[in-house]
Design a protein that fits this description.
Elements: H1 3-23, H2 40-58, H3 72-92, H4 100-124
Length: 155
């Protein structure tokens, strides 16, 4: 595996870790919280679409779809499934038909921004996530699902 793919995979693992923190234990009402913009369920649906798009570009068959949000638990599952599918392609050894830099600067960087939005909306909705030192977090390449290590140094 080349270093570009390893960096992409580490970034996906870090994104999965942060996204898991942003969505875990969110109250049922959070999905429809209106914080002046897109609702959390809409943001998460868009994030799933970003990784479906990333996978299609990596496979050389670029396509975009705007998904309607599913109920929150299903949307959370869909997001992590799309993240896992993209990670699986990266580890497969199949040729990347899109430059890694473009995959990072487009869908991956966009998703990182949206994780921050979800964390901010959690605070605005009155159900903030707990802060932690992400530098010390146990980020494991290949762990792209909702099941993540416990925080090492929360605050």
């Amino acid at each position: 595996m080349n270093s570009d793919r390893e960096l992409l995979r580490h970034t996906l693992a870090a994104l999965a870790y942060r996204a898991a923190r942003a969505v875990e234990d969110a109250p049922a009402t959070f999905a429809a919280f209106d914080g002046a913009g897109r609702q959390p369920a809409q943001i998460l649906a868009h994030m799933g679409d970003l990784f479906d798009w990333a996978l299609s570009m990596a496979q050389g068959n670029q396509r975009w779809h705007n998904s309607q949000p599913l109920p929150w638990p299903e949307e959370v599952s869909r997001f992590f499934a799309s993240l896992k599918a993209f990670d699986a392609y990266l580890i497969s050894g199949e040729r990347l038909r899109a430059p890694g830099e473009r995959l990072f600067q487009g869908p991956i960087a966009d998703a990182l921004t949206h994780v921050g939005q979800l964390a901010m909306l959690r605070r605005l909705a009155g159900c903030p996530i707990r802060g932690e030192n992400y530098y010390l977090a146990e980020i494991s390449v290949g762990r792209a699902g909702a099941e993540q290590a416990a925080p090492v140094k929360p605050f």
